[in-house]
Amino acid sequence: MEEHKLSVPRTARYYSLGTPSDQTRHLWLVCHGYGQLARYFLRHFQPLDDGKTVIIAPEALSRFYLDGFSGRVGATWMTKEDRLSEIDDQATYLNLLLEEQLKQLPEDVQVTVLGFSQGGATVSRWFTNTSLPVHRLVLWAAAFPEDIDFTTGKAAFTGLPVHVVYGTRDEFITPEKLQQQEKLLAKLGIAPVFYTFEGGHTIHGETLLTLNSNS
Asked: Which of 47, 120, 125, 114 is nearest to 92 (CA)?
């Protein structure tokens, strides 16, 4: 038995808040976590919709039923199956999406990329496969992927401000995992700014506004 691969066109779905204009100063590209859908995830970012900010939420390409064979649907960025092809497809998708948005915005627009949970690993891998302008990375309740290429990774993250955000009651964040992440980030030359809030595995509105004010 022989494995073959064929690149095919795909229809990707994304949602937006804010209207691109000459007055736009900030672009946020926000990637949801495992099992979420972009339109629901984007609701968390409504506090940023101030007339000068555009928020774009791409949806992962693989959807599935969350429970059995019907009912609620979620999306995932990747699984372990054919993972390298999935990573390449993610990079192609996000590059095309960001390119399309930048065409509609002023040249000096400030680009923030936020990855929540599984979306954090997705955008971190993407950063090693893009040369598009990004001014800040936010990893929210996210684990930096351990399989990152340290050669290309170090170059991709040099000089890039990185913010790490998590809730103090997040069941997926432990002191051991935090320590492991700090060591991994240090190997890439990343000295992140940490933000915490009282809460679990979710987006916290007040902390989001604090991040926005510091951009």
From this structure: 125
pTM above 0.90, yes or no: yes
Q: Which residue has the tokens 């955000």?
A: 165
Other CB atoms within a 10 A radius of the CB of residue 62 amount to 13
Query: Do residues 116 and 75 make contact, with C-beta atoms less than 8 angstroms apart?
Result: no
pLDDT digits (tens, 9 = 90+) for 37-92: 999 999 999 999 999 999 999 999 999 999 989 999 999 999 999 999 999 999 99
Task: Give the residues of the chain that fall short of pLDDT 70.
Answer: 150, 152-153
Q: Give the residue from 64, 80, 83 showing the smallest Cα distance to 72.
A: 64
Bridge-based pairing state of the strands 53-58 and 14-17: antiparallel
Task: List, edge to edge, every strand of the sheet that includes 53-58.
Answer: 14-17, 53-58, 26-31, 110-116, 136-140, 162-167, 193-197
The Cα diameter of the chain in Å comes to: 57
- Token pair for 132: 């598009």
